[in-house]
Write a structure and sequence with these properties.
It is built from 21 helices and no strands. It is mainly α.
């Protein structure tokens, strides 16, 4: 099979099939009536999150079936579920966002195709992510702890990124060296679809289009065209936030389970996913708790779905314990725990961490001034419009971004590494995790659509 034929096969099995499966699951859950960008964006992320455990079991149990069988069967199931959806998918609204989204995706895909000229051989995408995918795919699982320890840097990192790459290996029946980027890169396409659709529904057209282009002008395309897991985490976190907002606005009860699956995806993507998932959920949970006893009780009845992200966290902890893996921040030998280090190093590291993050907020190339704009616009909007600001999701986005960035800064304060080095290599990526939420919040606060109202 030629390289291009292999690439086309990988796109079909490891990208298209999960998207078709996830779209069917989404339409079955929420009943249809949603724009294609929403259906395919959420669908791809859901499909990958739901197929990842199957990929892991197939490798762990050494199932005697070809790796393409499970995704293709799942895709057939997705088609059947989509046909049974109660309502047809809504047509996309005409206007500038359709063209802006098309241009943004075309530019992003061009970056991804250009990256294919270079095999995965250096940096974290090779040492952390692709190497782990290769070890998990090649096995043998009876003694997999040894290759994990010798061939994978940070083998304790969560499994979603390697499992997504393993789908590409399983489709081809062998280890690949550049085609396995494709299913990871597709998370960036799904993210752009979801951000564009959310902006179009919650902000005025001109501001929505400008905000999407501002997001594209950050470091998102640079990281998104690699096999790094940061854009994957940003996509899962934003999709979960979007699903929570739709559930809050009365778009259907099915969005709450969808949000919980996506929160699990965030947890399974990077260790920082626990912080981002908690930050995305917190403002909605607080609003529900403050809404009165009846709504709070109704919320607790549905809280059982939070077992899904909890199981993702427990599964990751079980994997780490089973193979004796260690985290350099949480399990540093001879060092105090993270919380104790945060307290002890606050005086020395705190000012440096704060200064570096202020520089990031002011760095247009890194953040597009999106979080900074949100943190400035939100209080101004409260002064000008009062409680009307809380009818949309701008206030929720502001709280989620502030909580996530504060948590990240606390972790940097407690680092076991040289703080300047750690900030230089990681702070822009951790900030990237909340940039899409900040983009939506800024547009929704600065120029909300008059039609956006709180549902029942």
């Amino acid at each position: 099979m030629t390289a291009l034929a292999t690439f086309a096969w990988v796109l079909g099995v490891a990208v298209a099939a999960p998207a078709v499966f996830g779209r069917g699951v989404l339409l079955a859950a929420v009943g249809g009536g949603i724009a294609p960008a929403v259906a395919w964006g959420h669908g791809y992320l859901l499909g990958q999150c739901l197929l990842a455990p199957v990929t892991l079991l197939q490798a762990r149990l050494d199932w005697p079936v070809h790796g393409a069988i499970a995704p293709l069967v799942a895709a057939a199931l997705g088609v059947a579920l989509a046909r049974r959806a109660a309502r047809a998918v809504a047509s996309p609204s005409a206007g500038g966002m359709t063209w802006t989204l098309g241009v943004a995706i075309a530019l992003f895909v061009e970056r991804c195709l250009a990256a294919a000229a270079d095999p995965i051989r250096v940096s974290d995408e090779a040492m952390n992510w692709a190497s782990k995918a290769k070890v998990l795919f090649a096995g043998p699982w009876a003694g997999i702890g040894e290759p994990l320890a010798h061939f994978v840097s940070h083998a304790d990192y969560p499994l979603l990124d390697p499992l997504v790459q393993m789908q590409a290996f399983a489709a081809a029946g062998r280890v690949l060296h550049w085609e396995n980027r494709a299913p990871v890169q597709a998370f960036g396409v799904a993210l752009l679809l979801l951000v564009g659709a959310a902006l179009a529904g919650r902000a005025r057209p001109a501001v929505a289009c400008a905000t999407l282009l501002a997001l594209l002008g950050t470091r998102l395309p640079g990281y998104g065209c690699t096999a790094y897991a940061d854009v994957m985490l940003a996509a899962c976190a934003f999709a979960a936030f979007d699903a929570l907002a739709r559930a809050r606005d009365g778009a259907g009860r099915g969005w709450w389970p969808v949000a919980c699956v996506l929160l699990a995806g965030a947890v399974a993507t990077k260790q920082e996913g626990l912080l981002v998932a908690g930050a995305a959920l917190a403002p909605f949970a607080a609003e529900r708790a403050l809404a009165g006893p009846r709504r709070a009780v109704a919320g607790w009845r549905r809280a059982a779905w939070l077992a899904v992200p909890a199981l993702a966290a427990a599964g990751q902890a079980r994997f780490v314990a089973a193979y004796g893996l260690a985290n350099d921040m949480l399990d540093a030998p001879g060092r105090a725990g993270l919380a104790a280090r945060i307290v002890a190093q606050a005086g020395t590291h705190g000012p440096k961490v704060l200064a570096h993050h202020l520089e990031l907020l002011l760095d247009g190339a890194a953040t597009g001034w999106l979080p900074l704009g949100l943190f400035v616009a939100a209080p101004v909007a409260v002064v000008l419009r009062g409680r009307d600001v809380f009818a949309g999701v701008g206030a929720h986005a502001c709280c989620a971004c502030a909580l996530a960035l504060a948590a990240y800064m606390a972790v940097f304060v407690g680092t076991v590494h040289d703080v300047a080095w750690h900030l230089a290599v990681a702070a822009d990526r951790t900030t990237l995790h909340v940039l899409p939420i900040a983009a939506l919040g800024l547009a929704a606060v600065a120029a909300p659509r008059a039609a956006v109202t709180r549902g029942p």
